[in-house]
Amino acid sequence: MLNRIVEFSLKNRLFVLLGSVLLIVVGIYTADNMDIDVFPDLTAPTVVVMTDAEGMAAEEIERLVTFPIETAVNGATGVRRVRSSSLMGSSFVWVEFDWGTDIFKARQIVSEKMVSLANALPEGITPILAPQSSVMGEILFIGLQSDTTSMMELRTLADWVIKPAILATGGVSQVTIIGGDYKQYQILADPVKMMRYGITLEELEAAGATFSANSTGGVVREYGNEYSLRGMARTTDLEELGNTLVAMCNGQPVKVADVAEVVIAPAVKMGYASHNAKPAIIMSVSKQPNINTLNVTENIERRLKDLRKSLPADISMDTKIFRQADFIEASVGNVGNALIEGAIFVVAILFIFLGSVRTTVISVIAMPISLLGTVIVLKLLGMNINTMTLGGMCIAIGSLVDDAIIDVENVYKRLRQNYKLPVAERRPVFKVVFDASVEIRASIIHATFIIAVAFVPLFFLSGMEGRMLRPLGVAYIISLFMSLLVAMTLTPLLCKLLLSKDSYLAKKEKDSWVTSRLSAYYTKYLSWAMEHKKMVLIPSFLLLAIALILMTTMGQDFLPEFNEGSLTISAVTKPGISLDENNKIGNLIETELLKIPGVSTTARRTGRGELDEHSQMTNSAEIDVNLVPGERKQEAIVEDIRHVLSEIPGVVSSVGQPLEHRIEHMLSGTSADIAIKLFGSDLSEMYGLGNRIKESIEGIEGLVDVNVEQQIETPQLQIRANRDKLARYGITIGQFNDFVESAFSSKKIGELFEEQRSFDIVLRLNDDNWGSIDKVRGALIDTEFGSKVPLEEVADIVSVGGPNTVSRENVERKLVISANAAGRDQKSLVSEIRQAVEENIMLPEGYFIEYGGQFENAQSAARTLMVAMVLAILVIFMLLYSEFKNGALSAIILLNLPLAIIGGVFAIFFTSRVISIPSIIGFITLFGIATRNGILLVSRYHKLGEEGNSSLRKSIINGSADRLAPILMTALTAALALIPLVINGDKSGNEIQSPMAVVVMGGLLTSTLLNIYVVPIIYEWFSKSGRDGKVVQCKTEKLRI
Known about the structure:
- By secondary structure, the protein is of the alpha+beta class.
- Helices cover 52% and strands 21% of the residues.
- The chain is elongated, with a radius of gyration of 37 Å.
């Protein structure tokens, strides 16, 4: 069948040429309109359940809200992990589903579980699902600042003008806002005046609830018209609101203004924001899953540009605080440049070896057509262009011309041989080209399938690593098969059109100077090697032994560190510190950071914003730091930052990068490389154990940012009801709880509308009776008899400690000790951490430790790849056996694999000395390419052996010389095409491909050099039979193609 494709292509040149042009045009159009992202979609299917329970302590939240929600969703279909965080007034539950679960199905499952909880939660508490997004979906931070516009007006503009405009942009999932003053209408009750008029808080609350009430009265029909009746009581005038009647006292009206003050004031802050150490509002924009980040970002910025014209002139808007599109554009651009630069190396190598512009052009044209064809197939598969798919094509760039090289080299050789014959004996050009193409077709097809099989282990990867790396394998395999298709169609046709003219062949009777010289030297040294087998084999196997030993000494990581050009700093102060005090510390940190050379801008978020799914406490802050490109090395800046943070007392910090921070949070639930998860029941005991673990591992070399999650007791003011005293005054427990909520927690009693904008109406005691412990004690509570008594008369008010937050995982309380790796691999670090913990920590009964983070995924992925790699090698052996029908010869070809390992291991040893998942994939790539070279040699030996025109050794030497040029060209093009990735491995986007390129490049250099000497020697050894030294005729069969 495949032979017919070659024949059809040679007979229908117009169809093939026009088809190629069409593919180029469609490919360019598809590439220009294809979605672009930094990574494949890495969003773990996660549903976030958020619950607000204002004023409720963390322990109460855990017991009454979080635990019932966890119990409901735990064990649901597809749920793999449930994490939660309970803090004062809020509960967050992250329900993580198996990879591949449809997010809409996941949300439906969780929604159904929430319905069943309707009667299990405290009255008035309703859990909601966070908008469909994830931490990986955060694409843009927008900073708002102003010189003259007030922070309240700026926040109102952010809430009611800018946010709706962004949400109206297609693909936006959610916008959260932190900072500024959130506008409220506040009723500040005066207990003294209320007592004078005999007014209770309940009466004042009922009056305040009518502030925004309008009414309808049906219709009136008169004079041929129909008039709608509306009662217009709603107003935003503070004086009018103050005139609202509360009750009648001794026949006189008591108005709101008589017992309270109505003011417009900022709500109690949940968080602060700043930009370059100045107050700001920061808006976080998240996209929907599977949406093009670049398009959404461009559309948002276009809308903001139009919106800016209608905003006050003094408002500044910065969209560069965090812009994921910058990293995408830089990464894709860098990988694209590596692709182009690699292609230039390929062209240079081909021209040097082929010595002809025409043969070079025919071989090179396979590259753009194969790549554009790959883009079309990726689009049809629903994939996008990202650093992984581009990386797959980039690593394949040298291999894309391999099929064409072998085809062109063989056709060109046969055409020249045919030209040298007498005119009467020359065969038709069609027949020569067809036979020459078919002659090497079986080997090419087998080699291509073997390379594809070598990549199969990638498809065994699960979780985030599978979603990240599988597209690389898909792009690589598609590229290879596209190049195979080109080699069977366009390449033979172009050879016939461009290389078959007598006038051209007359000028090109000899091989290129490079090929001729290399062939002469190779024949000479191969003859020597065949005579001195031990002097070749012993050093080869000695090098292999050394490589295997070196491999055992190397570290292991999951993925290389990204170079994002920006940093994310987590700074946590002592729990219990006020938000205002923590804001001052955050401002100090920013000021010091801006003094560091290389730091461009800073943006800080302290606490959390409304409807934000990040469970940040008031003592937590995240600072985004943008760096000046190229001014200083990132490692030096990070070192300076860590030094600055260490000088600020009471601050526990961690330094990472934005996307890396989000990936780590998704993997382990904490934004650090390594997470030691301590599970138990008593928070105080866990915190003590956590600090002992920290002390035992802090001295380990290469371990930085060692922090214990701050789950410790913070001050609480408990108002403990005295039921006996309450009964004496006729106060029920319900009335007591309502008073505490209304008096001190700014209870929302309604909403007031300003045109289309709505603002909360809240009730609390005025500042003279609110805001200090003494004022709480003296707050006046209504009795059954119309009088008021101080709260301390009916309750015991005591200062105690209580947990600030409670973290859980899979329904177990959890404390995390986190750390980052600096200048050392994670495998050895974790091994030393485990040893230190086991030697120094004795856990009480019921307490246990789990280790999480990137290293956990690295171990799992490495195990999967190793098992799958063994299976792939077995399949490769079966494919080889199906062609050669001889186990020994198949084993000889597989001998290239250990020869390839030598160079790959030495390349790692002299660079990073760390084996990562990309390094392992580099070995997988290497095995496929190295096997192809072995097939080229052995298949040629067989061809000459079947002809039987020379002795075994002469056949081996001649066959090796025949295949030297294509082997060197395929190896050098595959290796040298990767030079840009090796040299620029620290550039954004190249971080994952670079370790692969290092392994492939180093492995190809040794496998090719040893392959052309070791394989001939081993082949001769296995092929000798009896005493006559003739070739053992294997039961080969021509592949039916």
